[in-house]
Every structure is written in structure tokens, then in C-alpha cells.
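Re: that chain you flagged

S.,

Sorry for the slow reply, it's been a week of failed gels. I finally had a moment to sit down with the sequence you sent. For the record, here it is as I used it:
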Amino acid sequence: MIELTFEEFCELRFEYRMGITFDTGAQRMYRNDKHNIQVEVYTDRNKRTGEWLNEKRYWFVDSDSRTFETIDQCYVAYMEKVCEVKS
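Prediction finished late last night. Pasting the C-alpha cells below so you have them in one place:
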């Protein structure tokens, strides 16, 4: 893992790994193995109309038990790991 600026972190590319769709929503998982980061996207779906509704993203850093709801929270955790510090 290498130090990145927040702008570089935001521009990282993620590879689609898996997804599943239900009548009530969908879940997709994307990974960046080089930086050990995962993003999971959950999208609600109107069961009657099939219309896609709210989307929620969760960010994860490997070997960190926390779940992050924003990219900036994930960035801080990533940099803690890279710099070997704790906030």
C-alpha cells in the first residue's frame, strides 16, 4: 500500500466482482486489490414498479473491522494503515 492524496484516492479504479438482484433491491461488490479496498453498493427497488430507488455505498479497508459510509472516512482509515498510525 502506498500513500495517496485524497484526489488520487477518489480516482482509484475498482473492478466489479459480484452482484445479486432481488425483487426489492440489488447488491454489488467492487474491489481494488492493489490498495486492499472494497466498495459495496446496495440499491432499493420498488417491488411493484421495478423502479430503482435509494443507493447506499459502504467502503471497507482490508484487515479493518470498521464500515465506512463515505469515501473520506475510508481514505482516513486507508492512510492510517499506510502510515501505521491510529486516530
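What I noticed first: The first helix runs from residue 6 to 10.

Talk soon,
D.
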